[in-house]
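### Sample
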Amino acid sequence: MPAFTLSQFLRGQKTQFLRDYGDGWTIVMGNEAGDLDSVASSIGYAWYRSHAETQNIGGKTVALMPMPRSDFSLRAENVYALEMAGVHEPFDELLCPEDLPPDHKGTDYALVDHNNSHNSSNTRVVAVIDHHEDEGKYHDTASPRIIEPAGSCASLVTRLFMSGSGHTSIPPDLAGLLLSAIAIDTRGLREGGKALEVDRAAAAWLLGYVDPMKQTSLTGESCVTQTPKETDPSMSRETVDHTWLRALSDTLSSKKSAVSHLSTRDLLRRDYKQYTLELSPSLKQESGGVIQVGLATVPLPLSAFFKSGSAVVINATTSWTEERGLTILGVLTTYRSKKDKGRREQLWIVKKSKDAPQQQTLTRALFDGVDGEASLELKPRRFSRYGFGKKGDATGNEEDGDDDTSSHEGSATDKQPASAVNDSPFGDAFIARVYQQKNTHATRKQVAPLLKRILGG
């Protein structure tokens, strides 16, 4: 085992990187949403690459957090998982964007939990580990280049440790951090969730390294049933202590969902990704054919997000689109009903442009595209359900009703096509639609590529 802790490693790498101005270093970076999977995967791969002994990788590597320090408090689950991993002073131990000298010489990047860099043209992507749709880049420069399905990117990072070549043993704190990411992304490897065999194998392997005392603190009993030497990388899900993993998942999910104290702007930016989309020839606008699209995942039902028709929420949401220079903003809600069933909704807001005909073409393409996407199973909803205009069902009762199959059909007005639902509270400068999403397994990971196909052709 290494003679130093994960915390000491992170602090040391950050100090040395800044001392070297990044010269000769590889920067490992997760996606801009900054979720636990990105944070854990970037730290995990930075450790792995720093200790690798193979000729084509190895050397000075540091993990760069994708979010500024001011955003750390927006993700309580990240703070909790880092504390469990012994990272108690993240601003001192983790490299944040504000820490980077403007003239730093770090130009080699390793991407985890995404596979398309938006950094300047003088950067070179030397590795990719991701579980999103492959955008086809960096075949000539990235080694390894691993892009394949997994419930959690942390599982793909863990598999590198499991390979048994070119690495040192994984420290307990790092094993626990990677396991936390897998647990929250797969809901503790629950059946019917997002877990694949790579996630089950990774979790089983990591459990052999996690500190038993930290395991016991969650459930009152240890989940260690085998020692690391006895742990087979090919072991199946039956070897994993599901009780402990689910307890960990539930704890992290509870912290992730505790967002009632956050402002609308904070809710929109806490789990946010922005995309530059080049429109298809039929959708070219005065913008030169390139638009900005933002997708914010919010762990609340729209009834809670809108706060019973609050004008403050509407103003904050439109202000966010202006601040980010967006043409389209999608708010993807995810929450659990009182009967613990997964629920999802979608809110789409399109900023009107001066070119009315082109605007209509773009808006029609967007809403026809999402309406017609069978995999999402979208049902249009009226804004009156959320406290705007006619009261109707404006108290958020749809959360309870979601557990009743009959309520999925909604009211007569809900059955109208999206083009006929004109009760948007977002004013004349925006066009908005809201939907219930019956396919609760479709996340931003599926919605983002869909948008590119709809608008980019």
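The chain has 15 helices and eleven strands. This sample (DHHA2 domain-containing protein) is used throughout the tutorial notebook.
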